[in-house]
Structure formats: structure tokens, C-alpha cells
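Most newcomers find our protein records easier to grasp once they have seen one. Nothing more is needed to start thinking about how sequence determines fold. Here is such a record, shown just as it appears in the course material:
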Amino acid sequence: MQKSKEQLYNQIKDLRTEQEFKKEIKELQNEYDDLFDEDTAALLIVDELGRNKENILKIADLESGIECTVFGKISRIDSSRTFNRKNGTKGKVINLELTDESGKCGLALWDKDVELVKNKNIQVGTNVKIINGYTKDGFRGIEINAGRWSIIEIEPDHMPEIKKEEMQTRIEGKLTKIEPTKAFFRDNGEFGFVTNIEIETNDGGKKITIWGDKVKEIQKLKEGNNIEINNFDIKQKNGGEEVHLNSKGTIKKL
């Protein structure tokens, strides 16, 4: 739940009087034609003053079901989709990939925020700061959603340097286990497929989660086949690593 303006003021009361804070809130609302409520405007002011730090996380530290503020670079943009809500109205969503020096995660933008991509304010390579996003388990692992109370800053000040670390992009070994395929429903009503496999490599066994159309490819293989997997994602979770293969990855029988 987003903090109230009163709670947020406690974080900057050494920098602003309460009267000054209320005046800045009103000025910010007027500047944006009352697009923000008072609590959201207060959050923006506190963030600009550098006091919105308690929920700033690295992508590797994210877990499902929390509110967070994250810096990152857009590394992939999927096509936008429209869907029908239960109340009969139409909605829009677009999925992106967000990267920092610790890893990658999904980023979902909804409705009016989809226009940030369509208008090319957000492109591959754009730095963003997601303030007060919320996390959930998405199609490709942990996903940040920019919701009603979230704020998206494009090319934000104080953007930390993102150093591209060398990451493993290839796994080769014997396919030792293929688990039964599971179906799941996404928030927009569509459904997808997921399964887990295990591969015996020179470094030991690896468990890999397979998503979407790659599930059909793995079903054509048999336990005992030697295979090579490329262009997978590594997700940090509970102090360990999870390997996920989605549409951008490849499976090759050796």
C-alpha cells in the first residue's frame, strides 16, 4: 500500500516545513492537471529529494509480492496486446525486459503507460526508474508491474552505472528428465504452457524451466538425448539461481 502524504512528510521534515510540502504538492498537481492524487505527488517530491530509498532494490533481490523501486535499462520490448476485462472494458498491456548489473526481470506496463512505448519515449536501451512498482510471478519469472500508484521516470537523475557482466549463455549435456507439461492462465485471460527438465552436464545436474513454444520443442526429444540450450535467462531467487528458457532461446539436439 502506498504511504500517505503525512507518512511521506516524516521522511523530509528536516528539509521542508509542512506548509512548504503542501504547497509543492499542490503545485505539482497543477503542473500535471491533477493527474496525480496528493499521496502520489508527495511520493514524487520525496523521491526527487533523494529520500525514497527504503524500497530501492537490485533485480537480483526481487521476490514476488512486494512493492519496490528499481533502476534499470530496457533490453527487450514485446508487442502490445489488448484484452477484455471482466467488467467488459478493454485494456492494454505491453511486456518489456528490464536489466541491471545484477540480472534481468520482466516489466509490465498497462493501459496509458503503453503509450510511452508507442510514442518511443521508451525504447530498447532507455534507462528507467520504476517507483512503487509491485512484483509477481510472471511468464518469464519475477515481473515488475507499473500499476496505478507507480511512477515511471525516463532517463532518471542519479542513474547507477549498469555494467554488463559476462554471463553463461550455453548449457550442454544429457537430457535426464522431462516433467509433465502444465497449463496456466495469464492476467489477460490467455493461457500458456510450462514444464521443467533436468540436464546432466560436466558440472553436475541443472534444472531448467521451459516456457511457451519451447515446450513443444522439448516434447519432441527423449530422455537420454544430448542437447544444447542457448540464450536462456538466469533468475536469482532465494539465494540461488533459476534457469528459464523462453521464446528467444534455442534447443538443439546433438
User: Anything to note?
Assistant: The chain has three domains: 12-48, 59-154, 170-253. Helices lie at 5-9, 18-31, 38-48, 115-118, 213-219. The mean pLDDT is 84. The radius of gyration is 21 Å.
